């Protein structure tokens, strides 16, 4: 009976860390059996899950990143073993900084333990740090974009769970990181600076890959959340005008399309209207004539 209440299991084969050669058993999430009860989809395309009486609250995002419990090297499973010599050297040099970050924000955290919310949040913090050392063939900018927004979500969850304002500040920090990375990702898709086929599931959550359409949508969402904080009103207008072009070009605002997911199309229309409202206000404030 106890096995039927488990949320995760350990892989039978050990994973060998390519940075420090530590051997450990990766934790995987079990599926089915009523473990996940899908709830609403947020405006940031995050799938919420309801707590079940049997298993409690489960965060699927906690288990997506492989983390070495010794040196804290982190990567998505398909990237974990394939390190080039220069990548390995950089990651070895940065081991101390990864350990210091974990101590600073979490005190003692042990990735040999069953993962909780703090492990999930920490795993994405470590992923962003580790992918900064990776070769462009692993699509590190793509991976850091999705890792940053997931970190922002989980640190916000931690803040709500613990009432710790530090986690709230870290969440905002990663929202800013996500904004910067997603803007770069849009450019990379257009100029081929990183291989899109190596990006994998861009989510941004684990339940569905929204692909390029999702990338443009999330970039616009983050512009509303972060780009609106620009001190210069001219920069805010520039950011929002760029997002209008993204949304108009890809989704055909005001038009129906069977090829576009209805749920995403509705969210896009709402976002487009909000962007227009803000632009009109800022243009009046700056003395510009509204283009709408």
Layout of helices and strands:
Layout: E1 8-10, E2 15-16, E3 23-24, E4 27-29, E5 37-41, E6 47-50, E7 66-67, E8 74-75, H1 77-80, H2 85-93, H3 95-106, H4 117-131, H5 140-162, H6 165-191, H7 211-225, H8 233-251, H9 262-286
Antiparallel strand pairs: 1-4, 2-3, 5-6, 7-8
Helix pairs in contact: 4-5, 5-6, 6-7, 7-8, 7-9, 8-9
What report would you give on this structure?
The protein is built from nine helices and eight strands. The protein has 292 residues and is mainly alpha-helical. Helix 4 packs antiparallel against helix 5 (140-162), helix 7 packs antiparallel against helix 8 and helix 8 runs antiparallel to helix 9 (262-286). The N and C termini lie far apart (63 Å).
Low-confidence stretches: none
Largest sheet, strands/sense/barrel? 2 strands, antiparallel
Describe the global form. globular
Q: Strand order across the biggest sheet? A: 1-4
Alpha-carbon distance between the two ends: 63 Å
Structural category is: mainly alpha
Q: Helical residue percent?
A: 40-55%
**How many β-strand stretches?**
8
Strand fraction = 5-15%
Number of helices: 9
H and E order: EEEEEEEEHHHHHHHHH
What is the radius of gyration? 20 Å
Mean pLDDT comes to 89
Question: TL;DR?
Answer:
This protein is mainly α and 292 residues long. Helices cover 51% and strands 8% of the residues.
Question: What are its keywords?
Answer:
mainly alpha, two-stranded antiparallel ribbon, 292 residues, two-stranded antiparallel sheet, 9 helices
């Amino acid at each position: 009976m106890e096995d039927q209440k488990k949320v995760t299991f350990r892989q039978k084969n050990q994973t060998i860390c390519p940075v420090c050669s530590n051997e450990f058993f990766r934790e995987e999430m079990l599926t089915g059996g009523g473990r996940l009860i899908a709830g609403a989809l947020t405006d940031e395309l995050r799938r919420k899950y309801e707590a079940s009486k049997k298993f409690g609250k489960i965060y699927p995002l906690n288990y997506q990143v492989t983390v070495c419990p010794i040196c804290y090297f982190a990567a998505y499973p398909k990237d974990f073993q394939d390190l080039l010599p220069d990548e390995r050297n950089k990651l070895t040099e940065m081991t101390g900084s990864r350990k210091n970050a974990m101590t600073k924000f979490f005190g003692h955290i042990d990735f040999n333990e069953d993962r909780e919310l703090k492990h999930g949040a920490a795993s994405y913090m470590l992923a962003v740090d580790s992918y900064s050392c990776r070769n462009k063939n692993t699509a590190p900018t793509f991976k850091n974009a999705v890792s940053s927004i997931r970190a922002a979500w989980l640190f916000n969850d931690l803040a709500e769970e613990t009432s710790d304002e530090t986690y709230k500040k870290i969440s905002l920090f990663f929202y800013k990181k996500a904004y910067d990375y997603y803007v770069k990702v849009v450019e990379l898709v257009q100029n081929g600076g990183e291989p899109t086929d190596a990006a994998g599931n861009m989510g941004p959550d684990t339940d569905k890959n929204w692909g390029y359409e999702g990338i443009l949508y999330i970039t616009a969402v983050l512009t509303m959340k972060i780009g609106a904080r620009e001190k210069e009103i001219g920069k805010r207008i520039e950011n929002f005008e760029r997002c209008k072009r993204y949304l108009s070009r890809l989704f055909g605002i005001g038009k129906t399309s069977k090829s576009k997911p209805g749920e995403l199309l509705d969210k896009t229309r709402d976002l487009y209207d909000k962007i227009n409202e803000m632009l009109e206000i800022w243009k009046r404030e700056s003395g510009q004539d509204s283009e709408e």
